[in-house]
Amino acid sequence: MSLVAVDVGGTNVRFAMAGADGLSAHHSMLCRDFPTLEAAFLAYQERIEQPVTAASIAVAGPVQSEHVTVTNNHWRFGKRDLMQALRLDRLLVVNDFTAQALAQNDPTAHGNLPLLEGDGQAAAPLLVIGPGTGLGVAALVPSPLGPVPLEGEGGHVGFAPQDDLEADLLQRLQAEIPHVSAEHLVSGGGLETLYRLLSGGAELPAPEIGAAALAGDVTARRAVHMMLGILGTVMADAILTIGCWRGAVIAGGIVAQLHGLVADSPFAARLRHGGTMGHLLADLPVWLSVDPHAGLRGAAAAFENASLASRVIAAA
User: What CATH number does domain 3-95+294-314 carry, 1.10.150.530, 3.30.70.1130, 3.60.20.10, 3.30.420.40?
Assistant: First the structure.
């Protein structure tokens, strides 16, 4: 069997060959350059000049149905249609944060950076969350048969303001958006929204806001700090809801790029809040994933994961 791991995001699609020695033949493409996932996959196959018999695809978006729509992306596909078009023997499609969770089975490995020190419980679930094009949320539960990923769409929970400024921002956003979710504020687009609201209407793309914040721009830094504070609250809520006493890993590209601003932000205070169950959050470790191949590693791991075995589609 020759397995290709695929990580499909809102902006980029990444490919790699997965084998006993790990990943090889990495290649990244812009989704906008291809009309379909099939076209991008075939372009990768042509590039590597190797036969492919199986694929494990991590997708940003819900994957429960036969037909998959990628969130923040123009791609749509049917699983069996894709399998037939690519002449695959086996295919697995999982949520991208299922893959991210599986990639973090050892949160101290693969160059992860400690953001908050703590002493988590090794036998408890681990939260994996990632602000990027959207906001992905998953958890990894240990079991005798191997880790079990909990799949969900936690980035779309309702935004819960914690002070008067956030309450005002929520009210202003509700005039634009019927349901204001965490993702609307904790993501690349969310950072742009915060900057626009805080600056009185000025618009900048997220990378420029981040660069300006790192350079000391007051409004940009205020927007970044607000986003990181809200992230802390979203994480605390998810940890308490799922019981992620092992700790949390932050994936996605945004926080890694803004790493230098985390310490001075409200992130830690909002995560380790003084609520009724705040003592459960007081000693939880938090790591930052900086591995650009985590999604691919997780997609490859998903194909071998016992809890996902029933979802592997085999050719008739």
Answer: 3.30.420.40
